[in-house]
Design goal:
The chain has about 550 residues and is of the alpha/beta class. It has three domains: about 1-255, Rossmann fold (3-Layer(aba) Sandwich); about 335-355 and about 370-440, Luciferase, Domain 3 (Luciferase, domain 3, Roll), CATH 2.30.38.10; about 450-559, GMP Synthetase, Chain A, domain 3 (2-Layer Sandwich). The protein contains 14 helices and 29 strands.
Amino acid sequence: MDELLDFASEQHVFRHWHGGERQDVSAPGFWGLVAAQMRQIRPVDEGRISIALGATSLDLMSLFVALIASGRLAAIFPPSNSIQDQQAYLTQQRESLRRIDPGAIYLFDKTTHTTLAEIDPALGRREVLLPTGIEPLPHEAEAARARFMARLADPGPIFIQHSSGTTGIKKAVAITGRRLAAQYAAYWPEIRAISGGRARIASWLPLYHDMGLLTSLLLPAIGGDCVSILDPFEWIGRPGLLFDVIEQDRCEIAWMPNFGFRHLARLSQNLERRDLTSMRAWVNCSEPCRLADVLGFEGAFAEWGVAANSVVGCYAMAETVFAATQCRPGERRALAVSASLASGADVMQAGATLVSDTSSEADKHVLSSGKPVPGLDLAVLVDGRPAGEGIYGELAVKGPFVFEGYAAMSPAEGGITADGYFRTGDLGTVLDGHVFVFGRLKEVLIVNGKNLFAGDVETAVNGIPGVKPGRVVALGLESAQTGSEELVIIAEHDAASGREAPAVRADISRTVSQLFLVVPRDVRVVDERWLVKSTSGKISRSDNLARYVQAFRARHAAR
């Protein structure tokens, strides 16, 4: 891997954007920062986690890499912010920190100290308050990088990331040095093939989430690629900043979740035009990736230089370090299934349409996530056994960068089969060599024997006037009377639409009944920001189900 970076080069490897100002750092400069941070790291008991906590900055990025280079087991945790519900943040982090029991918590400001005290006063003795804007140690830079690179041969864990899906409590995933190296060897050549060499990456992704941590920090740090990075909460306040960065730094590739593409397309008329012709690929990294949102994004920004077929899918998860599949521009596929599927069904026989480009019914199509990266064995399981191409079932993966199980769980409890496959909990199929992900196993709602994908219901409701886009959740509430699940829909009200909540509620119920032939048991149109999101920005099903029961069912039961 050393040959990928000319260490003496003054080429930029990280460009941090904040408040419209850019701070550039070269390879010697970044690793000099890492060397300086290594001097501030304190000893901890073996196996205890050292947490870096703070907003996106060169300080945070160099600290995290320094923790790994110093032989620590590192993790990044999100700071509190004005957008997320504060009580939800405290509850989430209190549970995580109690289970992790960290040996040290590194932070850069006293506000974070106050927040930690609210989470758990006992955490104070583990805090290490670091200065910001630390001076690099250029004479120690090469040695710091050598120590980091040496850890890529470590068979033991070097950092922790969290699986933060929309259901359940986060699960800690320990990533070994060898698995990180294997992920780089399998995935980064795919990215280099797309970019045509050393990649120039644009990112607003949070570093406490696997998509941001791997594509905006660790993999580029190994290869010496250039990352132009924004803080995610600054991007949320001004989404057009991403395009400013791309135009000025001539970036070539960016990763985003599906909602990012939808959000930017929706705002396109209000954004100042920028030159996006340098972009070779926009990677949609969600499960599922929806063709309608992809085409909407490409259409909205076509005149800005976004090329047709430049938005491509990627299937990734913390359990595989990051990427399991990747599609290249011009090779994408889309799939529409016109009938409900039962496990083991032949997708094509069930009424599927496979297309290579666009469709008049793009809203019903799922974009492929591409083909498995080299070295990964991906299977579709039906009744626990691998099935052939075109069969619908649970996706499972096996390979040199797939984890061995969650902390405090046996391999079987963590979804590892006897022959070494990890059962992802994602439902999908493989057609024409491409992987199609339809949704989570736990997000299939079974209402009176009918299977519904929660995501499909949410997509339908999102299009109703008066609903705040992207702020809908479909839930299954178990009914003791029927032995099935009741369909509950919660949607935030877009007051600016001019539509009254009762009319919106009636439209939701009617639309869902007509499209899915299921009458919702309850529809709630709530105020903006009522719904709880996880730290990765996803609507949290478990938290919102609990909030719904407390707010509406518990009150009803008490009467």
